[in-house]
Write a structure and sequence with these properties.
By secondary structure, the chain is mainly α. It is built from four helices and no strands. It is globular.
Length: 97
Amino acid sequence: MIRFPTTPEAFIACNEARIHRKLGDPERELAAIVVEFANASYQEGLNGEENTITMNSVRESYRACKENIDSSIRRWEIICWLCDKAYQEGKEAAHHE
């Protein structure tokens, strides 16, 4: 399981190992965006701030990649779940400092 904060490279390697194949370019673009959002969520948790990453903010950012953003609602739910996980990790790390 990936720990946050992370890098796109580590996130991609973790996912490739789990699915037993290399990610394509659109998947790598998405992974970089996911890492950006997840790391931001982690930092918000670490700082004791509200988690500002929402499904709408993720969709708007990914829209720039010219992907059909409505192709899979499940994709957006998973991204938001990862951001929530990163946020919780940040909150836990703040309690251990």
